[in-house]
Write a sequence for this structure.
């Protein structure tokens, strides 16, 4: 599986949410609404989720293993940093 496109939409308001991202895999499958969040230990991603009947939020789509999650997170955060740098120029 290759991530063939990453689209970053920066969030203008102040707060922990920094951007909302869509990724395309193998030019065939898209996952929307991945969030870039500023946490106590730095930036991380949160996969798209929805609120269940019991009030808990559950991921709609997510990687099955930590290696894949780390690869997706690395690519997204790299593109997010590139978007920030382009904005500064």
């Amino acid at each position: 599986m290759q991530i063939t496109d990453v689209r970053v939409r920066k969030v203008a308001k102040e707060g922990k949410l920094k951007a909302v991202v869509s990724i395309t895999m193998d030019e065939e499958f898209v996952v929307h609404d991945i969030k870039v969040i500023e946490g106590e230990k730095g930036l991380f991603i949160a996969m798209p989720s929805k609120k269940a009947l019991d009030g808990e939020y559950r991921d709609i789509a997510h990687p099955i293993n930590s290696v894949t999650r780390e690869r997706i997170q690395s690519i997204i955060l790299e593109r997010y940093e590139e978007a920030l740098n382009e904005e500064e120029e």
User: Anything to note?
Assistant: The helical segments are 66-88. The mean pLDDT is 94. The chain has one helix and six strands. The domain at 3-86 is CATH 3.30.1120.40 (Arylsulfatase, C-terminal domain).
